[in-house]
Design a protein that fits this description.
about 100 residues; mainly alpha; 1 helix; about 85% helix
């Protein structure tokens, strides 16, 4: 190739046959590229949504864990008070 713009000299196939094939090939890879872009965009959106959902559930479970710990502490205090009151009741009824 000498770098000239005369492509008809380098190809043996006539332009009337070659050009439609080249155009078809170009259109094919453009279509594939656009499909891949759409799939990539959809995947990114899905990933974003799933990450947001996961973060929301992490916050909810963290809050629930804190609430459970708080309730367990209250239960332990109530059981301790109950035991103390039972002991006092036994002492007072024993008199």
């Amino acid at each position: 190739m000498d770098g000239s713009t005369g492509s008809s000299q380098t190809f043996r196939t006539p332009s009337r046959i070659l050009i439609p094939k080249l155009v078809g090939s170009r259109d094919g890879w453009k279509r594939k590229a656009n499909e891949r872009k759409k799939k990539l965009k959809a995947a990114r959106i899905r990933i974003r949504d799933l990450e947001m959902s996961r973060e929301g559930w992490k916050q909810k479970t963290g809050a629930a864990d804190m609430r459970i710990a708080e309730l367990e502490c209250q239960l332990a205090q109530a059981q301790q008070e109950s035991a103390t009151l039972r002991d006092e009741l036994k002492k007072s009824s024993a008199r």
